[in-house]
Design a protein that fits this description.
about 200 residues; mainly alpha; Tetracycline Repressor, domain 2; 9 helices; about 75% helix; about 0% strand
Length: about 200
Amino acid sequence: MKRTKEEAEETRAAIMDASLRVFAAKGYSRTRLEEVAKEAGVTRGAIYWHFDNKAKLYCAAVLEGVSGYQKRLSEILVSDLSPLAKIRSLMEGWLAALEEDEAYRAVIEMTLTRTEFDEELQEGVSDWFEFVERLQQAIVDLVREGIEVGEIRSDSDPDLAGLALISYLNGIEETWFLQQCQFPVRDMAHRLVEFILRGIERT
């Protein structure tokens, strides 16, 4: 039984990895489960053993693909870093993950440039969108803390700063994909983040 359970977990992991690659390359509507099965080296029946349909597979792939990234950002939020240092680490981690985390990059590519959303896909992407909203609120709170400890300019608007910083990251992310990953976003992450943080950092 243990061996069977291990095999099932290995098969599921292979399906998840394959689905990320295929969905990222072809998009949701153009992907067929036969293609995912071939990429994973399993039968179509094996996919249906783990997932009811293509939408369920897509949603699971999204949640699985961003889980490691979410964990890293959550660790930054509970670290002993100062408020401004946390903001800097969160933003640099966001950009660096595009090149460092293959699963995260595949999720962002397939949700940003390869998917037309409808009701059946909302389950997968809503959790991710909610996480981004929580991250934005976390930045708002960090800006307030930074003002209190004298790291951030006292005339900064926390809500506006949170919206601006998240929008800045989303813009870089989208530009990177639209330009077919032509600039080294991970190597440029620190400079890109410092450029925008100068607007709120107290000097």
